[in-house]
Amino acid sequence: MEQRSIDAYDLPQRVESYDADMEVMHPNRAKMVEVALEILPIRRESALRALDLGIGTGYFTKKLLERYPNGLVVAVDGAKAMIDLAKERLGVSAGKVDFRLGDFRHLKQLVRGAAIFDVVYSSYALHHLNRNDKQAVIGQSFELLRPAGWFLNADIIVAESPEIEQRLQELRINGIVERAASRDTRFRDALSTRRFLHELEEGDADQPQTLLEDLRILKGAGFRAASVFWLEHREAVCGGQK
Question: CATH code for 3-156+206-241?
């Protein structure tokens, strides 16, 4: 992760449009979070302790606290503007969240003093890390989990084959243009959409891994039975159990 990845999410214009843009660019977000939560074999009345890596606007954490109303969350994010939006989204549930502002590459330091966790989760955040940093963060997550605890990640991946990646990008761009329905000049047509996405991903320093590499990282961190729970084109829900 580079500092510009963090700084990009403290820009007012980026923060204001974030959720609306997610609906256009990542319409599977709701399904991915739903799948991730379904995987957890934890009773809904449990006093779940969870760690959110990159809370963003609080979408995943809100859904988790709706499912586990007795749960408590430690939420890490590098952008104060995003944390402020998450607090607004969560409303009274924000009282169940311990917000930690900082770079989650230094995860163990950031969550110092917190109790051990039942689950560590993340969505649309870890693809900002390079391969080595991702391995390190997931390794730290493993250490912070109780025995049999879960790690779940809903995120972007890249295809193994350049030809397949090109085709998936075409499908992605066509879908964005269709959903935008000419209401947004950034997504007016395939050319403008492709240009916008390129500039966005360059500015955010996106570094998605292949699905196989993500599974290798999970296994390398010590997670047993690292698995894919959902996959469509360039998005996947992966995870494993300690």
Answer: 3.40.50.150
